[in-house]
Design goal:
alpha+beta, 5 helices, single chain, six-stranded mixed β-sheet, two-stranded antiparallel sheet, about 25% helix
Length: about 180
């Protein structure tokens, strides 16, 4: 076994901004985004974004629903959630603060990352609500961050009601979204 230190590249946001193609940056390591999603994935992404936009509008909440925008977490970590809800106005360029809500639509290529590393990352960054839509199971899983900083599973079979951005109450029609 070699005693030489193992070489591990350490890229930054500055490096990331020059790359071609679709990437995320996780603690300095490039992570390739999967190829364009299939139709069902895209359809569910539009449905969750639309329902969130309508819920924000009807609640009068001062929040922005964003699709596939970079969230720069640190100088060596950038992710691109499928859908994010940020409190206040949409950022001019990238999200730089933890969103109030993140939603990911699973695909074969991202399934393990979305329910593993990304779920942990979002929890550790203080994302209050994490929603995962599974096209294969035709289901939505929801987790809410508790006072101790852990995600707790929240039932979401027909509808899902939740608070974001202080006093905004949103409601999603899960059955309609998954139809």
């Amino acid at each position: 076994m070699s005693t030489a230190p193992r070489y591990r590249p350490a890229y930054t946001v500055e490096d990331y901004t020059r790359w071609e193609g679709d990437w995320e940056l996780w603690q300095g390591l490039p992570v390739s985004m999967s190829p364009s999603p299939f139709g069902r994935h895209s359809q569910l992404l539009v449905r969750i974004a639309t329902q969130l936009e309508l819920a924000v509008e009807s609640s009068g909440c001062h929040a922005a629903v964003l699709a596939e925008i970079d969230w720069i977490i640190t100088n060596d970590t950038v992710v691109r959630p499928d859908v994010s809800v940020v409190c206040g106005d949409a950022p001019v360029r990238h999200v730089e603060q933890p969103p109030a809500l993140v939603a990911e639509v699973l695909s074969d290529a991202t399934r393990s990352r979305d329910v593993g590393e990304k779920k942990d990352l979002y929890r550790d960054q203080g994302v209050r609500w994490y929603l995962v839509i599974d096209p294969e199971a035709n289901s939505l899983s929801a987790w809410s961050l508790d006072a101790g900083g852990s995600y707790q599973s929240v039932p979401a079979t027909e509808s899902l009601g939740f608070d974001i951005c202080g006093d905004c109450r949103l409601s999603l029609d899960v059955k309609r979204m998954l139809r």
